[in-house]
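TL;DR need C-alpha cells for one chain.
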Amino acid sequence: MITVLYFDKSGFALWQKRLERDKFPWPKDLAAPTVRLTPEQFAWLLEGYDVWNMKSSEELHFDRVC
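>> reply
TL;DR here they are.
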C-alpha cells in the first residue's frame, strides 16, 4: 500500500492505493520515513516503474552544427 499526503487549492488530501497483486517498487535501504517525488515520478510509480533505478539520458552539448 502507498499513502500520499498532498495539498491542493482547498486543503490537504490523504490518498491511499493498494495493489491487488505484486508490490510497488521501493528501495530497501531507504532511511527516511517519507519520500518526495516529482509529479512525473509519482505517475511512473503508480504505473509500476521503479523510479529509483531509472536513469535519464545524458544531456548532449555541441560545439557546432554542420
